[in-house]
Design brief:
The protein is α+β, with helices and mostly antiparallel strands. It has a single domain, classed as Glutaredoxin (3-Layer(aba) Sandwich), CATH 3.40.30. The chain is 43% helix and 17% strand. The protein has a four-stranded mixed β-sheet. Helix 1 packs parallel to helix 4. The longest helix has 18 residues. It is globular and about 45 Å long. The chain binds glutathione. Glutathione binds next to helix 4.
């Protein structure tokens, strides 16, 4: 099943990798999963059609067949649960890693 993520057509950070599609690309690369990127303008993000993928009209959105996800953390957790190598197998270590994942998206960010 093809994975498609969305990203800015024109990068407001001038290509410094700060936009939140970067963390999803990174997870997919680490997991060795091929993916396609759909580049969108700000105007396209705000269209009703795109809001069916992302209710807030932002990037990144993730599409894999019938599965549509938004929020980079949720997308990365999905990738990590589906493919080996990103989360420890041991339950306690896994819970600790997920705790850091939430910290990164909340306290740290
Ligand atoms: N909490 C969301 C934040 C998504 C977000 O803020 N995306 C920004 C780019 S990094 C965006 O699309 N901004 C355009 C806008 O809000 O109009 C996530 O982690 O996915």
């Amino acid at each position: 099943m093809t994975i498609t993520i969305t990203a800015f057509k024109q990068s407001p950070d001038r290509g410094r990798g700060l936009a939140r599609d970067m963390r999803v690309r990174w997870a997919l690369e680490e997991a060795g999963q091929p993916y396609e990127v759909r580049l969108l303008s700000f105007e396209q993000l705000k269209q009703p059609a795109y809001r069916t993928l992302h209710p807030f009209g932002q990037i990144p959105a993730y599409q894999e067949g019938d599965l549509i996800l938004f929020e980079s953390g949720a997308i990365i957790l999905h990738i990590a649960e589906r493919h080996g190598g990103l989360l420890p197998l041991d339950a306690i270590a896994r819970a600790r890693a997920i705790s850091w994942m939430f910290a990164a998206l909340n306290t740290v960010e």
